[in-house]
Amino acid sequence: MTDNAIEIKGLKKTYAATGKSPAKEALKGIDLNIPRGSIFGLLGPNGAGKSTLINILAGLVVKSAGSVNIWGFDQDRNPRQSRAAIGIMPQEPHLDPFFTPAGSLDVQAGLYGVPKAQRKTAEILELIGLTDKADAYARSLSGGMRRRLLLGKALVHTPQVLVLDEPTAGVDIELRNMLWRNVRKLNDDGMTIILTTHYLEEAEEMCDEIAIINHGEQIVRDSTTNLLGRLDSKTLVITPDQAVELPSLPNNITGARQTDGRLTFTYKSSETPAEQILSLVRDAGITIKDVHTQEAHLEEVFLSLTASREG
Description:
Layout: E1 4-15, E2 24-35, E3 39-43, H1 50-57, E4 65-70, E5 73-74, H2 79-84, E6 86-89, H3 101-111, H4 121-127, H5 143-155, E7 161-165, H6 173-188, E8 192-196, H7 200-206, E9 209-214, E10 217-223, H8 224-229, E11 233-240, E12 254-257, E13 263-268, H9 274-283, E14 288-294, H10 298-307
Parallel strand pairs: 3-8, 3-9, 6-7, 7-8
Antiparallel strand pairs: 1-2, 1-4, 4-5, 9-10, 11-13, 11-14, 12-13
Helix pairs in contact: 3-4
Pfam family, one: ABC_tran
Organism: Yoonia phaeophyticola
Keywords: ATP-binding, Nucleotide-binding, Transport
């Protein structure tokens, strides 16, 4: 058994031409290993190929080439075992309106062949906060409750890998926090989590590692810490003890005076020490009341990497 929950090699998918639409190469040879027990971020702009990759993992889309191994099971040789090892929380809340949450979980467990004695319906309902709605029709649930039920359905067969496809899109802060508490608990219990999200601050906070794909190609894969370290740019924010003008600066430092009187200085940390900026400020006769630095955020890394591959 390998140390990877998912192993993808040379994965390609080409959708055939239809009508006036030409053939589309959605995935162009993805190689990706996802470690067991990690929270792994899969990011990319719309149309990058994320949904195609997830649907291949779920067994909903047939790949054109390559291999997919889920929890040690080759998807071609052991399709049932590989599918049983993964749970998918889809982006769209497709639920039967005439089933109750308890009924939906029970039916889903039956589809995976989970014996009645081994089903964890009550436990899952408690986890997702729907115990008091166990016997309510799904059509009466709020949008947030329906998303919780989607998470529950993905867990009925106790998968080793859980894929969350845009799990917090359009939900309120309370539900988002509840989802992340549940995800952390599942991960602490040993489940591997794969997350796609457009909320980059979530990926920055939650993920151990991140892969970014664009136009069907993987353009980077690294730890979240290392990705954030790729941007050399830093900003030093100085609050003077009284209103002052921005001092003259050399070409390697960009400065600005904010409306609240703070002075910001942007520079490359590999070329310019922060002490040089502090010396310039002191030499200008400015007394410093407060100072702090602003680090790069994942959004900046994401934009810089995807923008460089456009066109």
